[in-house]
Amino acid sequence: YIMSSLTSESTPRPAALPAAAPLPPPGPPPPKPCEEYNINENDDGCILGEGGFGVVTREKCGFKLIKCKGKYVAKKILTRYDTLTEVLLKQEKRIYEQLSKNPSEYVLNMYGSIINEENTKVTQYFEYIGGKELYEYTEKRFISDIVIGLIKGLKHIHDQNVIHCDVKPENIIIDTSKEPYRPVYIDLSLIHISEP
To answer: Do the strands 110-116 and 162-164 form a parallel or antiparallel pair, or are they unpaired?
Structure first.
């Protein structure tokens, strides 16, 4: 009895805990790769590719600052922004502007880019090409169309006094959205403008 009365008198009572704040409503689930969505899911914002540079997502075309064509656009968000990246971005923009004067179905179109220097984030908007990279393409259909398109596309780039310095299967997408399939040169960051 003595022990219990000492304990009860010497132990302070805990203060009442404040009421817990209500939890915010759950947001949308994080995006996942486009191929993981089924036909009934909303796949707007799905991931086309990601790496050390940032992430590329497929978005519905409907931006205030960017004029785009077609139903979708490929949105590339670069998370690394430094002096070298700035130089490469300016060069890439100049290349796309040069090529857009005389567009080709075999060369990717850039709709625009936005640089946010406060949080060092760059967002680029490109034509969306539905298909797969050349190195993944294993079909025998339309091989002659693809080979001829590769030649026409590279010739078109060179005719604009531009030299593509990074031609490889990973930088060519086979557009399978309509027949005959066509190759499209992408990733024009390693390109040089030659003087005529």
So the answer is: unpaired
